């Protein structure tokens, strides 16, 4: 039992007025950013805003602030929630009233979040989601953490009632600062490198024009004018810029990883897996095995050297802002194995792996052509007659990537689970899903695939679409029939 009574209408903490005001002010500034910049430019240039004096401007801003404060106060007064039987009720709105009723059984998740302002005033935000929409349906901006936890327990009470006395709370995993730093340092920065390379290539011509207009040729002209004598100077100049941007990207990735996953903890709570993490934006969410649609296990060569894996989870119709938090980083092999069995009981990791047909090689080669053309185009802008030298790196790299993409592509099937592997020279990914949660199965086949008797199988769950690529047409038909048979014959609930 908890010390909070949710049978009658309950309001947020009075501190919620400040939180709602801050949210409204942020939305106003975001929507009016362009107009505010124009006003600011006019003020600093002329000392007035379109002829209006400074005092008038201050009064206008104060009026907007007062309006937002009154709106926040009225929103606070008109926002109430309570639990009646097996339903959660919410009343909100100022002029346009809205009453929302959600059965407890339809609630998919309850998130507890806390941004920097909420941490300062010691309140948390509660988001309640169901599988019926891809956005947060209920958002309680400011209540105490104790009340939030009590509300979460009450909303999940129907499914916890049978095991409430036997529930245990155990911190299964806690990420150390060392693991977070290793995770940030071992991210795949190849993609960032090509983005930076494209950025530099796009600016190169403009930079040469700028040097000519400002008559800086005596300082930079020899570095920017490409010919045989200045080739190595240009290599040094561009390498220095690219190197500096890569270092900045590396540091930003490191900082982002630490901030988003600070104090990451995974708690095994009998019926659920609880995840908490974050520094400036703290997040707490629950994973219920019956509601998980897909699991992804990701790593790369550097992470694998340090024994690091990431496990990500997909649930039906989760808001995009929430879905990005559904992952655990820094896990070891034993922890991955435990969580896989905990969430997908009886999953067999030793099944025979089936590979795509050789047609997959041809597809990968065709897909690599645009990247090959783009890299040569950028190289031509940067090095002109020496552009072909980029192929000394690009061609071996593409061949390595194609080889490893083919090598890491596989699928396994048993009577309960489907697993699909993919990856490249650097990264590796494995997707797992329960067969009874499949929503639909279809065979995808192009004109060229039909001539080669090749097809791909598209499998839809409530959270995403996965594909078994390029198998023999008769095998694809057999797999589709088998999956549909397992779904229809077992008739298990997918939620």
Notes on the protein architecture:
The chain is α+β, with helices and mostly antiparallel strands and about 500 residues long. The protein has 3 domains: about 15-165, no CATH class; about 290-355 and about 410-490, Pleckstrin-homology domain (PH domain)/Phosphotyrosine-binding domain (PTB) (PH-domain like), CATH 2.30.29.30; about 360-405, no CATH class. It is built from 17 helices and 19 strands. The chain has a 7-stranded antiparallel beta sheet with strand order 6-5-4-10-9-8-7. Strand 2 and strand 3 form a beta hairpin.
Task: Please describe the structure with a list of short key phrases separated by commas or semicolons.
495 residues, alpha+beta, seven-stranded antiparallel sheet, six-stranded antiparallel sheet, 19 strands, 24% strand
Shape designation: globular
- Assign a percent range to the helix content: 40-55%
Structural class: alpha+beta
Radius of gyration: 28 Å
User: Between the first and last Cα atoms, what is the distance in angstroms?
Assistant: 27 Å
Question: What is the percentage of strand-forming residues?
Answer: 15-25%
Number of domains: 3
Q: Poorly predicted ranges (pLDDT <50, ≥5 residues)?
A: 161-166
């Amino acid at each position: 039992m908890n010390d909070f009574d949710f049978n009658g209408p309950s309001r947020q903490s009075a501190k919620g007025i400040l939180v709602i005001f801050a949210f409204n002010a942020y939305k106003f500034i975001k929507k009016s950013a362009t107009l505010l910049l124009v006003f600011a430019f006019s003020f600093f240039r002329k000392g007035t805003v379109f002829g209006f004096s400074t005092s008038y401007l201050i009064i206008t801003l104060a009026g907007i602030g007062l309006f937002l404060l009154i709106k926040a106060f009225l929103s606070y007064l008109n926002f109430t929630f309570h639990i009646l039987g097996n339903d959660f009720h919410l009343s909100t709105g100022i002029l346009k009233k809205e009453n929302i009723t959600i059965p407890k059984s339809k609630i998919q998740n309850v998130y507890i979040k806390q941004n920097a302002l909420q941490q300062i005033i010691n309140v948390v935000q509660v988001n309640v989601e169901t599988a019926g929409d891809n956005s947060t349906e209920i958002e309680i901006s400011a209540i105490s953490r104790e009340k939030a936890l009590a509300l979460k327990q009450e909303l999940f009470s129907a499914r916890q009632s049978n095991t409430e006395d036997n529930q245990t709370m155990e911190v299964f995993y806690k990420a150390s600062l060392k693991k977070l730093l290793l995770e940030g340092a071992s991210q795949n920065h190849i993609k960032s490198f090509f983005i930076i390379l494209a950025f530099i290539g796009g600016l190169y011509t403009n930079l040469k024009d700028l040097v000519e207009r400002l008559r800086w040729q005596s300082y930079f002209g020899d570095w920017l004018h490409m010919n045989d004598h200045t080739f190595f100077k240009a290599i040094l100049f561009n390498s220095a810029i690219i190197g500096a941007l890569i270092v900045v990207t590396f540091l930003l990735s490191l900082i982002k990883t630490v901030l988003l996953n600070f104090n990451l903890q995974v708690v095994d709570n009998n019926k659920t897996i609880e995840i908490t993490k974050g520094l400036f934006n703290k997040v707490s969410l629950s994973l219920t095995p019956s509601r998980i649609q897909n699991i992804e296990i990701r790593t790369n060569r550097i992470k694998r050297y340090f024994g690091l894996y990431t496990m990500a989870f997909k649930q039906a119709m989760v808001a995009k802002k929430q879905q990005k938090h559904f992952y655990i980083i820094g896990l070891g092999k034993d922890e991955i194995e435990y969580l896989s069995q905990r969430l997908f009981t009886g999953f067999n990791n030793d099944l025979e792996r089936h590979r795509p047909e050789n047609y997959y090689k041809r597809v990968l080669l065709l897909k690599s052509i645009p990247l090959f053309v783009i890299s040569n185009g950028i190289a031509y802008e940067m090095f002109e007659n020496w552009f072909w030298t980029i192929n000394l790196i690009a061609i071996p790299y593409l061949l390595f990537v194609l080889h490893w993409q083919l090598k890491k592509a596989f699928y396994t099937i048993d009577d309960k689970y489907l697993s699909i592997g993919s990856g490249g020279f650097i990264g590796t990914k494995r997707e797992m899903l329960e067969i009874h949660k499949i929503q639909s199965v279809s065979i995808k086949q192009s004109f060229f695939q039909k001539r080669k008797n090749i097809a791909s199988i598209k499998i839809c769950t409530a959270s995403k679409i996965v594909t078994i690529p390029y198998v023999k047409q008769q095998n694809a038909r057999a797999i589709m029939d088998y999956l549909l048979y397992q779904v229809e014959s077992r008739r298990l609930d997918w939620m």
